[in-house]
Amino acid sequence: MSMQKILVVEDEVKVANAVKKGLEENGFDVEVAYDGRMGKSLATSNQYDLVILDLNLPHNNGYEICEVIRHKNNRVPVIMLTALGGVEDKMQAFELGADDYLVKPFDFRELLARIRVFLKRAGTETPHSTQYKISIADLEIDREKKEVTRGGKKIALTAKEYQLLDFLALHKGKVISKLTIAEKVWDIDFDTGTNVIEVYMNFLRKKIDKDFEQKLLHTKTGMGYYLSEE
């Protein structure tokens, strides 16, 4: 079994080397880019199982690199690792397709735990169901290929958007609370003080419902969200 490959884009040499060393000691194959230009080049020309991005980088910042990765329709998990801890910084990162956001200074054990969650999902995702295709009205989810279409049109989703949609689809018609979504889709140390779930539901609505008369994503005020034909 080949080692899982991780790209670390970080211009603080001490931090980058410490992360590289720690990940290699835990069995990962790690490549480091010390500026945004190199990071962008590596991220778009090579295949990685996960990407760790700083935001403040020379030449190309982490937002730009994340956006380029997502334009490739690449579902590789992206974790932002940055000193910028403001809500607006986080929202911008999530809007561009980041899957997670860890603020410096950080505990390496937490970073490692988050990495393992994403890689476990990517490698073993047949989540608690033998359903390989789910159809709701003209929405189709191919769970083997991780592809989503509506009305025959392919819809590009980030890894986190896909996980959220897939989870709602597996519980078609059932109202799922924010707390349950946080536990099942976000997993670790979810900050209930943020509106990340609302943000991601808006992302999904724009992609799944906006161009279609029949709306499939619904909100039950004060209770949660559900996916249904009605």
From TrEMBL:
Q: Which PROSITE patterns match?
A: OMPR_PHOB, RESPONSE_REGULATORY
Instruction: Give the GO cellular component terms, alphabetically.
Output: cytosol; protein-DNA complex
Instruction: Write out the transmembrane intervals.
Output: none
A GO BP entry is:
regulation of DNA-templated transcription
**InterPro entries, from UniProt?**
CheY-like_superfamily, OmpR/PhoB-type_DNA-bd, Sig_transdc_resp-reg_receiver, WalR-like, WH-like_DNA-bd_sf
The terms under GO molecular function for this entry are:
phosphorelay response regulator activity; transcription cis-regulatory region binding
Q: What keywords were assigned to this record?
A: DNA-binding, Phosphoprotein, Transcription, Transcription regulation, Two-component regulatory system
The record, for PANTHER family, names: REGULATOR OF RPOS
Q: What is this protein called in UniProt?
A: Response regulator transcription factor
